[in-house]
Design a protein that fits this description.
The complex is a heterodimer of chains A (about 325) and B (about 300).
Chain A (H helix, E strand, L loop, with lengths): L5 H12 L4 H4 L12 H28 L3 H6 L12 H8 L11 H31 L5 H11 L4 H14 L6 H26 L2 H9 L4 H9 L4 H17 L2 H6 L7 H9 L8 H22 L1 H13 L1
Helix pairs in contact in A: 3-15, 5-15, 6-9, 6-12, 6-14, 7-9, 9-12, 12-15, 12-16, 14-15
Chain B lengths: L13 H6 L1 H21 L16 H8 L1 H32 L6 H9 L6 H11 L6 H7 L16 H26 L3 H9 L4 H12 L1 H16 L3 H6 L11 H11 L3 H32 L1
Helix pairs in contact in B: 2-14, 3-14, 4-8, 4-11, 6-8, 8-11, 9-10, 11-14, 13-14
Classes of the chains: A mainly alpha (about 325), B mainly alpha (about 300).
Protein name (chain B): Sugar ABC transporter permease
Membrane topology (chain B): Multi-pass membrane protein
Pfam families (chain B): BPD_transp_1
């Protein structure tokens, strides 16, 4: 107990250095130069144990995907491959079978690309304009619609999926990629609108007033004043939407036909198909391929990703 | 107040209303309209196609007497309580550990949060492999000399929830950690100064002073985690497909299977309406709590 007060002291010092920004900017203040006390060892020990829990599945995925099936049958899933082979990756990408098609995950990959790009652009465009209208052009009832929108984010999708099937059928988009895009625009709207509304309301209102005085209209102010200065929030929105839409399974399986299934649906069909011999290395390569896009975004964007989910979560 | 008021004349603001049409349509047609539609049709005996042939509460009676639904609800309750408690506990513990002015904080945070970027399908498939009885954890621990060791949650109806928890927490606890860390960083440093002056040990400060101050952060986390728990679907599909038998079925899967697999729409509607009711039971108290707080401040 002799050094029990020590973390508190260290904590207090770091807090005075950078009270709020540290989550985004990393540790601030003096670097810890102290000897390793028992407390420190416990702290790092705890973090290392949790890190192992988080990292081992990734390690196992990579290792399994680089082994041949004979080695998997004999060996240990944690052991690195004796003989590295990229054949499972090639097979997962271009030969693995789902139902009748045997052209691998590449089909799902390109389907997902064809879904994610328009859905991300459209949903962000719509939500950004919503946020702008909610902050700068309030009209009677606008806050009511916004409140409904935010509450709607919590309604289980299962309640709405069937009526949406009917709507999509009526407008002729059921089964097509565009129907799924529309669904993603609708269900992405609450969080992205919230993101833009919070961002626009944090901008100085003088900007808007000055542009009004200069005679700029609704679209003029939005496109020439607000959009150019909103690059960070657009980036956050793109990160959120690309990962969210890429990772979707439920909407993909309901609103598209097998030939335009997104990658997640195809992955599930490959791995959980009942027929055929299970090729675990191909499965793991397919899993990694499916996770590659969101993981790349995550590791490249780092702090922006955290900022996006934190902004969406805390303020919501 | 901080913004210029809306233009007085109605037509001046028409472009804003036009621009907000997608939002208005989403709010009214999808969130309210589609939800009400499903609730209304849950009182009909729709099977292959939705029909307005009202049968009162018959669908609900059937729902609650179906073993698969009972198992689904039971699973969701067990999984939900355990996932909520474990996620909050792990999230808070990790946030406190990360808050100790450690080296490589960014690195640790990146590791803890990365599964959150992955889909539940990917998560489920990976854990299915790790928990595979012939190659995964059980096989390895047996190989270490414990030949009698059994840990096969994917084929054991009593333990299958453990598999879902291991995977679900792996994917989601990072988010809670990050939110809690932001909460810890938002706490006034004077609290720490005061507790230091009084000579209160750090762990006591965290447990008895900081934790109660984090109530709003916990409330946010609870709502987020609960909303995710009720929607639990993809993970089950990818990890267990509801098995072994019906041991890991969940309500969202019941809804999907009855609507799109069994051509029994009425059951699907009734089940999804029950899910909506459950969400409302969580959201409404939370909204009232938030509104009450705003009024007091």
């Amino acid at each position: 107990m002799s050094d029990a007060a020590y973390p508190a002291a260290a904590g207090a010092r770091s807090r005075s250095a950078a009270p709020r920004g540290r989550l985004l900017d990393g540790p601030a203040g003096l670097a810890p130069t102290r000897r390793l006390s028992g407390k420190r060892i416990m702290i790092y020990g705890g973090l290392l144990i949790f890190s192992a829990y988080y990292l081992l599945p990734l390690w196992v995925m990579v290792m399994t995907s680089l082994k041949g099936m004979p080695e998997i049958r004999m060996g240990n899933i944690f052991a690195p491959p004796v003989e590295i082979t990229f054949e499972p990756w090639v097979k997962a990408w271009s030969e693995a079978c789902t139902g009748l098609n045997c052209d691998g995950l590449s089909r799902g990959f390109w389907n997902s690309v064809a879904i994610v790009i328009p859905a991300t652009i459209l949903s962000i465009a719509v939500a950004a304009v919503n946020g702008y209208a909610l902050v700068n052009w309030r009209f009677k009832g606008s806050e009511v619609f916004f409140t409904i929108l935010i509450f709607g984010a919590f309604i289980p999708y299962q309640v709405m999926i069937y009526p949406i099937v009917i709507i999509l059928r009526e407008i002729g988009l059921m089964g097509s990629v565009w129907g799924l895009v529309l669904v993603h625009v609708v269900f992405g709207m609450p969080i992205i609108t919230l993101l833009f509304r919070n961002y626009f309301s944090s901008l100085p209102p003088e900007l808007f007033k000055a542009a009004r005085v200069d005679g700029a209209g609704f679209w003029g102010i939005f496109l020439r004043v607000l959009v150019p200065m909103s690059l960070p929030i657009f980036t956050v929105a793109v990160i959120l939407q690309v990962t969210g839409i890429w990772n979707d399974f439920l909407f993909g399986v309901i609103y598209t036909r097998p030939e335009s299934y997104p990658m997640t649906v195809q992955l599930n069909n490959i791995v959980n198909s009942v027929q055929g011999v299970r090729e675990y290395n191909v499965n793991m390569a397919a899993t990694l391929l499916t996770g590659l896009v969101p993981l790349t975004i995550y590791f490249l964007s780092g702090k922006l990703f955290v900022r996006g989910i934190a902004a969406g979560a805390v303020k919501g | 107040m901080a913004h210029s008021g809306p233009p007085i004349r109605l037509f001046q603001n028409w472009s804003a209303k036009l621009a907000a049409t997608p939002m208005i349509l989403t709010a009214l047609v999808v969130f309210i309209g589609c939800s009400l539609w499903t609730v209304v049709y849950s009182f009909t005996n729709s099977r292959l196609l939705p029909r307005l042939d009202f049968v009162g509460l018959a669908q609900y009676e059937r729902l609650w007497s179906t073993p698969r639904w009972q198992v689904s609800i039971e699973n969701l309750a067990i999984y939900g309580i355990l996932a909520l408690v474990l996620t909050l506990a792990i999230g808070f513990l990790l946030a406190v550990l990360l808050d100790q002015k450690i080296r490589f904080e960014d690195g640790f945070r990146t590791i803890i949060l990365f599964p959150y970027a992955l889909s539940f399908i990917v998560t489920g498939v990976v854990w299915q492999w790790i928990l595979n009885p012939d190659f995964g954890l059980q096989h390895i621990i047996r190989g270490m000399g414990f030949s009698g060791f059994t840990f096969d949650p994917l084929n054991n109806p009593d333990l299958v929830i453990v598999a879902l928890l291991a995977a679900g927490i792996w994917q989601g606890a990072g988010l809670t950690t990050v939110i809690m860390l932001a909460g810890l960083r938002g706490i006034d440093e004077d609290v720490w100064k005061a507790s230091r002056v009084d000579g209160i040990p750090a762990w006591k400060t965290y447990l008895f002073i900081i934790l109660p101050m984090m109530k709003p952060v916990f409330a946010t986390c609870i709502v987020l985690i609960s909303a995710g728990i009720i929607k639990l679907y993809d993970l089950v599909v990818a990890l267990t497909r509801g098995g072994p038998g019906i041991a890991s079925e969940v309500p969202a899967k019941y809804v999907y299977d009855y609507m799109f697999g069994n051509q029994n729409l009425g059951q699907g509607f009734a089940a999804s309406t029950m899910m909506l009711a459950a969400v409302l039971a969580i959201i409404i108290p939370f909204a009232l709590f938030r509104m009450g707080r705003k009024r007091h401040v």
